Each structure stands twice: as C-alpha cells, then as structure tokens.
C-alpha cells in the first residue's frame, strides 16, 4: 500500500509541476501582450487603424505560412509508379525506324499496234505514255528516347517549388519563432527539412548529369542546359526578395529552381530530337551509384550522432529536422534510382543486376513507410520513447549496403 501511495504522490507531483510550468508560460506570454493592448487603447484613431491593418496582415501571413508548412500537396511515396519505365529505351537511342521513301511506280509495259492495218502502211510501234511520277512521302522526323533521370529531377524540383511553397525562403520562416530558428523548435519545420532532403538528392544528380551522364566519356563539350540547371540548383536555399548580407533586393530561391526545371526539360526535349547526348555506360552508372552511397553514408553519420548524443526522447527539438531531411533524400532517390533502372536497363541486363536493383528499390520504399506524427529520439532500449532516428539510420545503411553491392558487381 505504501508503494502505491508513493507512486500516486509522484504522479500528483509530476502533474502539479507540469501545471505550474504551463501557467508560468501563459503568464510569460499574457503579461507583455496585456501591456501592448493597454498602449494600443491610448493611441489615436489613425494610429489604431494603421496598427490594426498591420496586425491583420501579419495574422493572414501567419495563417498562410502555417497552412503551407502543414499541407504537403501531392506527397506520394509511390510517385515513381506513374512513369512507364518498362516501356522506356536507353536515352538517345532512336525510337522506331524512320519512314523511308515510297516505292517508285513500276513502268507500264509497252504495247504494239496491229501491223495489218492497210496495204503499204508502215508498221508503227505505239509507245505507252510515260507513267505519272508519284510524290514521295515525307520522311518522318527522327525521334530519340528521353532520359528518365532528367525527367524525375525536373519533376522533383517542380514538386518542391511549384506544387508546394518553398518553405526555407519564406519570410516568416527566416524570421523564426520570436527570433529563434525554426529548426531549433519542434514546430513548423518538418516540411522545410523534407524539401531540403529532396533538394540535396536533386543537386547531386544535376552534378552527375553535367560531369558524366550528359556528355561522351568526359571529353566532349558540357551540355549548356545541364550546366545552367546545375548552377541554378546550387543557389542558396533561403534567399528571399530582400537580404541583409549583401544588403539589398535579391532574386528568391524558387525563381532559380524554376529556371532549373526549364533547363532540364529543355535538355530532355533536345534529347528526344536526337540533338543531345546521354552516355549510358557502366562506368557512369558506377560513379552515380558511388556518389549516392557517399551521400547516404554522410546522412547515416548525422543520424547516428544525433541518436547517440542527444537522446532526449520526445523533447529533442532537432530530431525531427534530421529525420525528415533523411526522409526527403530517400523519397527523391527512390524515384531517381527507379529512373536510373530505366536509363541503364541495358547495362543492368548485361550484368544480371535487375534482381539486386529491385531489392534496393524495395528497401527504399520500405523506408518511406515511416511517417511518425512526432519524431522521438529516445535511447535504443527505451520503453515509451522510440528511437525514430536509429530506425531511419538502419534503413539508410541497408540501402547503402545494396548500392555498394551493385557497385561491386558493375566493376567486375
């Protein structure tokens, strides 16, 4: 009985402490607001009107900001299914045979008139009239296969900045929570971290498109569209219309990313017209796979460091940033590696890698099933506070292990 009394006493003490803490926080907010309200009542009518308009405008801006951070438009872990990869050809290869010329009309056989017409008449041979020359059918325009990797890279960027608002450069996100960086709070930052994870994968892919995939053996000229896309995607993620360093007006981040979308689609359009290059060689795939494995290795180390050194359970305010960044990377690489399966289908078939590649894609998709409402960073043996970072790190390492195996087979 004494044990039960002690437990109840501890629980009452805990609830009492939480109640006093919430009351103190409420007073901390209410006291300055009350002082501001009293000052507002003492102002003249014009100043009240000006301040009222500003407050209403700021409230509308915050409503829009909260809405954009909480609504993830067109979020779909199964988005790669909408691409018809099984029907695709190697990028740059002609699609079908171009139509040739129409067959020429065969000449009509000559006919000879009857020579028994009248006595003394000379025998004449009547020639058949010349056959009419039929016009030739115009040759069909040559069409080549586009790149699935370039298509998915453009679509992921479109998902980030057109289908959704780019959170990291919104003015209220930059302002923070009463001056505190949103990434250091448990509020309204998950979507921003998710978008930055996607962007990290997109940037990596744009670099590989420029350096190796979009040129022949690294000695040909760099593709201008891909080079512009890479430069635009490398732009700072948090630029707004105005900045302090340097001071003055700026071009916001989404404008640069939208330009990159146009550049990537321009490259694919030229590839379809057989006016661009996509070098689907095994060594290029090895390099791309190796770069992705390195990216995921870095992400795994970040997750490991946070899980081991800051395991505060539900109260780790940075755990959600790490988790959703890794989730965004995997979300993007799931589609990009499915696209690579299409673009390098000849290489994978030659190396008998389709089965191992499919396993890697399944691991990517399995990781995307983790969608916790609140990210917890508890110790690995915790009862009530799961370690979501450790679990995500486990998936990341499995995917990386598959990529390393694929690289080893490709090098044989």
Explain the overall architecture.
The chain is mostly helical and 412 residues long. Among the domains are: 2-42; 147-231 and 261-411, no CATH class. The chain has twelve helices and two strands; from the N terminus they run ααααααββαααααα. It has helices spanning 2-41, 45-70, 148-161, 171-175, 190-213, 224-233, 253-272, 282-309, 319-343, 345-350, 354-367, 388-411, and strands spanning 242-244, 247-249. Strands 1-2 form a two-stranded antiparallel ribbon. Residues 90-139 are annotated as: Disordered. InterPro entries: UCP029693.
Radius of gyration: 33 Å
Task: Report the order of strands and helices.
Answer: HHHHHHEEHHHHHH
Shape descriptor reads flat
Head-to-tail CA distance between termini = 71 Å
What would you call the structural class?
mainly alpha
Q: Total helix count?
A: 12
Low-confidence residue ranges: 97-129
- The total beta strand count reads 2
Q: Main beta sheet, described?
A: 2 strands, antiparallel
**Overall helicity:** 55-70%
Assess the beta-strand content as a share of residues: under 5%
Strand order of the largest sheet: 1-2
| Integer average pLDDT | 84
Protein name: DUF2333 domain-containing protein
Keywords: Membrane, Transmembrane, Transmembrane helix
InterPro entries: UCP029693
Region (Disordered): 90-139
